[in-house]
Design brief:
heterotrimer; A: alpha+beta; 2 domains; B: mainly alpha; rod-shaped
Chain lengths: 150, 68, 245
């Protein structure tokens, strides 16, 4: 390679390496802020601030959802299978919100360690499958839905 | 085919509005992505043709300096 | 490989080659897009959790995948332009930027439309989504920077440096869902091991990804052809082409 080109190649590589290093360091320093939510274990361990709004993410504990008969108040527990946090929410929940499913809730922690949520977001996983496949996987003995056809 | 009727296809169990808006906007952008460079190409081509006609009328032998 | 790159550096050769390529690649792309959209919208089954809203995946994922790959094309062209000072590399970089910006915009707004019914929010300042927004600004930055300079060689150099610095963002976008807690789900298509998406839904998705790749190539070539025509409008070979037409 021509020496001038070689030098420019080194310069280009240097730009990429240095900017990667700079951004890598920034990302490392800000890693707590880049995380969208705290897992329940961190909240229970007191790592989450209590004086401002935080996000909590995890699975909705099976059988923990309690809905009020008179208004939209809902309480449920969020777990990461190490610790659990109680959540209170008043409002309409997303369609995908269900027991045993992922959720990200935003709100303030109260003194008792429960979270008063202002927003509830459903978090779904990367698995996509047709309903009949899901039913077969769960081992449901009910009639398998056959795909409709035109 | 998954959907039984056109209405079911349009409505998609309440998600139709989201799906169709997303597809319509995407289609518009994809078409623009192809149409814009083609029309730019045609414009430039037309410019070269017009310039050739102009120079061949005024001075057939030499090509003049042209502004961008 | 090197002969192709060498020939690509010659505008008359590129002009003939790209003209022939686009002539059959454009109809193929349109056919792929139509078949893929028809398959994804009408034939593929609904998702067991999300119902029909997941059908947005057939435009959201291909747009995002090609927007990321397109950035590497732009940055590689930028590196070639800086090191070898090939004019055609500048043209490639300039042509890829608006196409990449459009694809990133598609990925962002289809994601927002998909997020509303599934997550419950149009927009979340999640690591994946925010880094994708940064990608959009990087593409727009290259377009704007190119226009800001009167001198096209200086413009190409500034854009090449900007796009090279921006390459850091690509692995961040790709790995953001694994490195940090985020709302966005991890990748469903896996290169190694079994994909987390059922094959009846995967095939139309792969078809759409192929279609978007073809479309990227077509759109970039068309942009390059328009640019080459303008840059060489005074040259003999363009005059000959116009005369023959």
């Amino acid at each position: 390679m021509h020496p001038a080109r070689k030098q420019r190649l080194m310069l280009v590589s240097l730009v990429v390496v240095l900017s990667s290093a700079a951004i890598g360091l920034v990302a490392f320093a800000l890693r707590d802020n880049i995380n969208l939510f705290y897992p329940p274990a961190d909240v229970v361990a007191g790592k989450a601030p209590i004086d401002r709004s935080i996000r909590l993410g995890g699975m909705v504990v099976e059988g923990s959802i309690e809905r009020s008969d008179t208004d939209l108040d809902t309480t449920f527990w969020v777990t990461d299978y190490e610790a659990s946090v109680a959540v209170r929410y008043s409002g309409i929940l997303p369609d995908l919100f269900a027991e045993g499913e992922g959720v990200v809730v935003e709100g303030m922690l109260d003194k008792g360690g429960a979270l008063n949520a202002t927003q509830v977001l459903a978090k779904h996983d990367e698995n996509y499958m047709p309903p009949e496949v899901a039913a077969a996987l769960e081992g449901k003995s009910g009639p398998v839905q056959t795909p409709q056809s035109l | 085919m998954y959907f039984d009727t056109l209405t079911a296809l349009w409505y998609m169990d309440g998600h139709g509005i989201y799906v169709w808006v997303a597809y319509a906007l995407t289609a518009a952008l994809l078409i623009a992505m192809v149409r814009l460079p083609i029309s730019r190409f045609r414009r430039h081509w037309g410019w070269v043709e017009a310039e050739r006609r102009r120079t061949s009328v005024s001075s057939p032998a030499e090509t003049e300096e042209k502004g961008g | 490989m090197w002969t192709i790159i060498h020939k690509m550096g010659s505008p008359p050769w590129f002009f003939r080659f790209s003209g022939a390529l686009v002539r059959w690649l454009l109809p193929l792309t349109i056919a792929l897009l139509c078949v893929g959209a028809f398959w994804g919208l009408l034939i593929a089954p609904p998702d067991f959790r999300q119902g029909n809203s997941y059908r947005i995946i057939y435009i959201h994922v291909p747009a995002a995948v090609v927007a990321l790959a397109g950035y590497y094309v732009m940055a590689f062209a930028g590196a070639v332009s800086l090191i070898w000072r090939i004019k055609m590399a500048d043209v490639t970089m300039r042509a890829a930027a608006p196409v990449g910006a459009a694809l990133t915009a598609i990925a962002l707004f289809t994601g927002a439309i998909w997020g509303k019914p599934t997550w419950g929010a149009w927009w979340v300042w999640d690591a994946r989504i925010t880094s994708m927004l940064l990608l959009f600004f990087l593409y727009l930055g290259v377009v704007a920077l190119f226009e800001a300079y009167e001198n096209k060689t200086a413009a190409a150099r500034a854009c090449a440096v900007l796009s090279l610095i921006g390459t850091v963002n690509i692995p961040i976008i790709y790995k953001s869902v694994d490195w940090w807690y985020s709302l966005h789900q991890p990748a469903s298509i896996k290169f190694m091991g079994e994909s987390a998406i059922d094959s009846s839904m995967l095939y139309p998705l792969l078809l759409m990804i192929a279609a978007f790749y073809c479309l990227f190539v077509v759109a970039v070539l068309l942009n390059m052809r328009a640019e080459v025509l303008w840059r060489h409008r005074e040259s003999g070979w363009i005059q000959q082409l116009v005369e023959r037409a």
